[in-house]
TrEMBL record, chain A:
The lineage of its organism: Bacteria, Bacillati, Actinomycetota, Actinomycetes, Actinopolysporales. It comes from Actinopolyspora xinjiangensis. Residues 22-126 form the Aldehyde oxidase/xanthine dehydrogenase a/b hammerhead domain. One of its GO terms (molecular function) is iron ion binding. This is Xanthine dehydrogenase YagR molybdenum-binding subunit. The keyword Amino-acid biosynthesis does not apply. The keyword Oxidoreductase applies. Keywords: Molybdenum, Oxidoreductase.
TrEMBL record, chain B:
Keywords: 2Fe-2S, Iron, Iron-sulfur, Metal-binding, Oxidoreductase. GO terms for molecular function: 2 iron, 2 sulfur cluster binding; metal ion binding; oxidoreductase activity. The lineage of its organism: Bacteria, Bacillati, Actinomycetota, Actinomycetes, Actinopolysporales. PANTHER family: OXIDOREDUCTASE WITH IRON-SULFUR SUBUNIT (PTHR44379), XANTHINE DEHYDROGENASE IRON-SULFUR-BINDING SUBUNIT XDHC-RELATED (PTHR44379:SF8). This is Carbon-monoxide dehydrogenase small subunit. The keyword Iron-sulfur applies. It comes from Actinopolyspora xinjiangensis. Pfam families: Fer2, Fer2_2. The keyword Metal-binding applies. Residues 1-78 form the 2Fe-2S ferredoxin-type domain. SUPFAM superfamilies: 2Fe-2S ferredoxin-like, CO dehydrogenase ISP C-domain like.
Length: 693, 168
């Protein structure tokens, strides 16, 4: 059942690869529309207060300006419970950078120029943007209010167990605000006509955009079309529609049918489309003489916005990872006058596993036990909190295979003793885990065109992951036809309803849907269907849901070099070995793992949105100031996976691979940096000055 | 102003151009060539890389007026009709394309690298492409694609594209 794969076929090439390398794949902003207008937003320059006056006279005189929209002349939207979408509905300002108006003009440049000429006066109110542990701003979110939240957990007697433990760790780790920065900025083209609203929109779920925007404007869903054939990356930032979609659709109400185009600038993306909130996490671990955990405590404090609550619960990473008879897991929020955070690749796990897996390394060091061995000794038989059996759990195989491949057994555990020239050298390991999710409610249409050709339609969105290719493969396999015989259509509300591209659940949810729809098609039309035979169906409820704990796992190994004089940190070598169920397409899957690990390197070494709490904004709000890993920052990154057949997760046996690659990476690098230098840095990112003392 | 320029070997004209708008805006919004991408607007990410008189530049940093009477090569001009260029083919084969937004700029930068350095070392590839940010792939597959493209070009000049114009 397990054993490392030695890939035979790389898998089909990316279906839209040709369109992308020839520059003919059309992203949202590029859809050809007749006679477009361009929007430039007006944004608050204070962090809290209200707009007292707006003078648009000068802006309206600019040649080519067709509209200046503010809360004075914007139409009323229907309150649907999402403050981000309720743009221009009042004079209130809840965070710096908030959308407070728009200029629409014949060219982008004239819209931007005119926006500068709008005179806005404010009544300023005191704001608080300083992330800290302070009773005035800290609270525990109501877990009953959302199925996405888990309640705090208290099992056994953590304090007594820690007092009796042979080895203990008590450490606080911090992770900073991070921004997704997909290469494609959020963009939308909005046009109203007699049939309703058409949005060419860069998103992770066209149907979700429709489901929110239609009621916002008080129109039937059938009157809103959302089209998104190609998306230039998202990482969670395009999961929910943000205010710019509502703003552009509002503006397009005033343009007599002319389409309005708006692509956010990179700087605007640091305020308007969410971010990974900063965290402060305290982890206490206690172990017996053999290194078996007797107590696990994980408390996480995370930033949220007073404007709109978001909670990702980083401490929950410690609920199911290792065996521990005594356990306390608490998640708290600090509410500030800041933009709303949102999901960013592995929300919760990325930061939470950084803390837990760093603490495990500290425990290994204090107990004198090899860090791979320490994890193996704490491997649970069943899911520790729920008591459910695992649908499959191959973390030990990942650790053993990775250790073998990485050359781990040659490692001298002593920190700070290897030097090559000016460089201190070390290696580190960390485990990864991510839940295997399945989003219900998707439908697919299978249609036999003629001559053995099939058309498959599902309203999912391929955000660059390779969904289009994987779904085509799964459809072809289920239909028992070559891949070339299947033409897959996705991306828009013209296709049947599909769930969001998120939670690493796309291939699992949509793949199961496509496979079940093929089965329904065969039941209805047999194996020799007439031309035009068609069936629309979805996946039923998984009978194993709730009966098993379902997660993917991985082991990350890093070699780190820290310059003895400058503190510069380099990562010349990484290896990730994963167990994530069935890998549908090795070629596209490998790239997903690699991309996740590289974003993890970036998280470890570079990414940090620096907030100036005096003004409530991110100072380094562009790609010059916000560093993401470039080609020259990355060394050798290798990826492999364990063959894993999991009959329980879903009909296609897929666990999801989009997020697990980033989980554990920063901990592996931090642990290796400690091994190299003897300096334990607990605050990301691992910038040079933190190693100099 | 009226802007006259050659793009991918074809003479093109755009009217009512404001001299200060970017070459990238002209290509994408006026000439119907949205292959070159706008991702940072300030020359940090390389997604808008095009040839200007056979030299790779960030089109977002070139004012429209500066392109007057000059030759521009974009991703749309890399292929020879239906025949993909060597770098384009290698990017597909190696799985170096994910979301595809950095791809057009990377292809031009890689095409230029192989033209200048027919057998680039890994360090030379990383350095040459350091100005092209990618958020999806993690660069490994991009490295593999450039190595493959260089190999297939046989260490001789060029990757068979025409976007750079007639390089003598």
């Amino acid at each position: 059942m397990t054993g490392a794969t030695r890939a035979t076929s790389p898998g089909p090439e990316r279906i839209e690869g040709h369109a992308k390398v020839t520059g003919t794949a059309r992203y949202a902003f590029e859809h050809p529309v007749a006679d477009p207008l361009y929007l430039h937003p007006l944004r608050a320059t204070i962090a809290r207060g209200r707009v007292t006056s707006v003078d648009t006279t000068a802006a309206e005189r600019v040649d080519g300006v067709r509209l200046v929209l503010t809360h004075h002349n914007a139409e009323a939207l229907v309150p649907i419970g999402d403050p981000e979408l309720a743009v221009l509905q009042s004079d209130e300002i809840a965070f710096r950078g908030q959308l407070i108006g728009a200029v629409v003009a014949e060219t982008q440049e004239s819209a931007a120029h005119a926006a500068d000429l709008v005179e806005i006066r404010y009544e300023r109110m005191a704001h608080d943007s300083d992330f800290r542990d302070d009773a005035d701003i800290v609270y525990t979110p109501d877990a009953d209010a959302s199925p996405m939240l888990s309640p705090d957990l208290e099992e056994g007697d953590v304090d007594a167990a820690l007092a009796d433990a042979a080895f203990t760790v008590d450490a606080t780790y911090t992770t900073p605000t991070e921004h997704h920065n997909p290469l494609e900025p959020h963009a939308v083209i909005a046009a109203w006509d007699d049939d309703g609203l058409t949005l060419h929109d860069s998103n992770q779920g066209s149907h979700l955009v429709r489901d929110l925007i239609a009621p916002l404007f008080g129109v039937d869903k059938e009157r809103v079309s959302v089209i998104s054939p190609h998306v230039g990356g998202a990482f969670g930032s395009k999961g929910m529609p943000h205010g710019h979609v509502a703003l552009t659709a509002l503006a397009a109400r005033h343009t007599a049918g002319r389409p309005v185009k708006y692509a956010l600038s990179r700087t605007q993306m640091f305020e308007l489309v969410g971010y990974r909130p900063p965290t402060r996490q305290r982890v206490r671990l206690g172990a017996d003489r053999e290194g078996r955990l007797v107590a696990t405590e994980h408390d996480s404090l995370e930033q949220t916005s007073r404007f709109k609550q978001y909670a990702e619960q980083s401490a929950s990473a410690s609920r199911e990872m290792y065996t521990s008879p005594n356990r306390r897991v608490t998640n708290r929020l600090a509410a500030l006058d800041v933009p709303a955070p949102t999901w960013m690749r592995a929300p919760g796990e990325a930061g939470g596993m950084y803390a837990l897996e760093s603490a495990m390394d500290e425990l290994a060091v204090s107990a004198g036990i090899d860090p791979v061995e320490l994890r193996l000794r704490n491997e649970p038989e069943v899911a520790p909190v729920s008591g459910l059996p695992f649908s499959s759990r191959n973390l030990p195989a990942c650790l053993r295979e990775g250790a073998e491949r990485f050359g781990w057994h040659e490692r001298d555990p002593r920190p700070g003793v290897r030097r090559e020239g000016d460089w201190l050298v070390g290696t580190g390991v960390a485990a990864s885990s991510f839940p295997s999710l399945f989003f219900p409610g998707s439908l697919a249409t299978i249609r036999h065109e003629s001559g053995g050709k099939y058309r498959v339609e599902i309203g999912a969105v391929d955000i660059g992951t390779g969904s289009r290719t994987a779904l085509t493969q799964l459809a072809a396999e289920a239909l028992e036809v070559p891949v070339e015989a299947v033409e897959l259509w996705l991306g828009s509300t013209e296709q049947p309803h599909a769930s969001l591209a998120g939670g690493s659940a796309g291939t699992a949810s949509w793949g199961s849907t496509v496979v079940e729809a093929v089965r329904a098609f065969r039941t209805e039309h047999g194996h020799d269907p007439v031309s035009g035979a068609e069936t629309t169906a979805g996946a039923g409820k998984n009978p194993d849901a709730g009966e098993y704990a379902m997660h993917s796992y991985g082991a990350q190994f890093a070699e780190v070099r820290v310059n003895a004089d400058t503190g510069e940190v380099r990562v010349p070598r990484m290896l990730g070995v994963f167990a994530a169920g069935r890998i549908v397409n090795p070629r596209t899957a490998r790239s997903q793992f690699l991309g996740g690990m590289t974003m993890g390197i970036s998280m470890a070494l570079h990414e940090h949105s620096v907030v100036d709490e005096r003004f409530g904004h991110v100072v380094n709000h562009d790609l010059a100031g916000y560093h993401i890993a470039g080609n020259a920052d990355v060394g050798s990154v290798e990826v492999d996976w364990i063959d894993e057949h999991d009959p329980h997760v879903n009909p296609v046996g897929v666990k999801g691979i989009g997020e697990i690659g980033i989980v554990g990476t920063a901990a592996a690098i931090g642990n290796a940096a400690h091994h190299a230098t003897g300096v334990r840095v607990r605050d990301l990112p691992l910038t040079p000055e933190k190693f100099l003392r | 102003m009226r802007l006259n320029l050659t793009v991918n070997g074809r003479a093109m004209t755009a009217d009512d151009v404001w001299e200060g708008e970017s070459l990238l805006y002209v290509l994408r919004e006026r000439l119907g060539l949205p292959g070159s991408k706008n991702a940072c607007e300030q020359g940090e990410c390389g997604s808008c890389t095009v040839y200007l008189d056979r030299v790779p530049v960030c089109a977002c940093l070139v004012a429209a007026g500066q392109a007057q009477d000059r030759e521009v090569g974009t991703v749309e001009g890399l292929a020879d009709g239906e025949e993909l260029s060597t770098v384009q083919r290698a990017f597909i084969d190696e799985g170096a394309v994910q979301c595809g937004f950095c791809t057009p700029g990377l292809l031009v930068a890689a095409d230029d690298l192989i033209e200048r350095v027919p057998e680039p070392s890994d360090a030379e590839i990383r350095e040459a492409l350091a100005g092209n940010l990618c958020r999806c792939t993690g660069y490994e597959k991009i490295m593999a694609a450039v190595r493959t493209a260089a190999e297939r070009s046989g260490g001789t000049s060029g990757s068979g594209s025409s976007a750079g114009g007639d390089r003598t």
